[in-house]
Amino acid sequence: MATIVVGVTGSIACYKACDVVSTLKKVKGMQVRVVMTPHAAQFVSPLTFQTLSGNAVFSDMFQTTQEWDLLHTSLSMAADLVLICPATMNVLGKLANGICDDLVTSVVFATKAPVLIVPAMNLQMYEHPATQANLKTLNGYGYEFVGPKQGMLACGVEGMGHIEETQAIVGAVRKRLK
């Protein structure tokens, strides 16, 4: 059984992460664990992801579990793949610059599993030189990307930065695990 740890960050594109988690859960032989940033929980409830994944959802590095466990290390060691969906400009900057201040970034930095990143943000944020530099840095670290694509953005502008479709994200996960 392959364990996919899905890191959800604070973007309106969190709605797509719900569909991704639900679809991954239906793939035979996949277990899905979800970690969220506190900002992500402002868009979608942890209960939603718990229901869709069938597993407890974590967002606090210091949250206690039934048994003594260091969440970031246990989740990172259990992961066969870490999927950051959606990935905001903020989390891209943190990952590119070694900032490890939440459970999602802690899991990424502690894992030896492949990391797939699904960027989603508005056009100006995506095109910003800092974002482009961070993407290049993360690519150099060996992280892989799914999207973004051209589409209608939450700000009402058509442009690059729209989150990739669920099937493309799930397809990339399956391909990377083979």
Question: Could you list some keywords that capture this structure?
Answer:
alpha/beta; 178 residues; two-stranded antiparallel ribbon; 8 helices
Give a verbal description of the structure:
The structure is a single chain. Strand 1, helix 1 (14-26) and strand 2 form a beta-alpha-beta unit. The mean pLDDT is 91. Strands 3-2-1-4-5-6 form a 6-stranded parallel sheet, sandwiched between helices. The chain has a two-stranded antiparallel ribbon with strand order 7-8. It has 178 residues and is of the alpha/beta class. It has one domain (2-177): Rossmann fold. It has helices at residues 14-26, 46-53, 71-78, 89-96, 103-110, 123-127, 129-140, 166-177; strands at 2-8, 30-36, 57-58, 81-87, 115-119, 144-145, 149-152, 158-162. The two termini are 13 Å apart. It is globular, with a radius of gyration of 15 Å.
Give a quick summary of the entry:
The chain has eight helices and eight strands. It has 178 residues and is an alpha/beta fold. The longest helix has 13 residues.
Distance between the termini: 13 Å
Extended strand count? 8
Helix content: 40-55%
CATH fold-level topology: Rossmann fold
CATH superfamily: Flavin prenyltransferase-like
Q: Which H/E pattern describes the elements?
A: EHEHEHEHHEHHEEEH
Shape assignment: globular
**CATH-level-2 architecture:** 3-Layer(aba) Sandwich
Point out poorly predicted stretches.
none
Structural class by helix and strand composition: alpha/beta
Tally of domains: 1
The fraction of residues in strands falls at: 15-25%
Put simply, the count of helices is 8
Radius of gyration: 15 Å
The main β sheet shows up as: 6 strands, parallel
- CATH level 1 class label: Alpha Beta
Mean model confidence by pLDDT: 91
Strand order of the largest sheet: 3-2-1-4-5-6
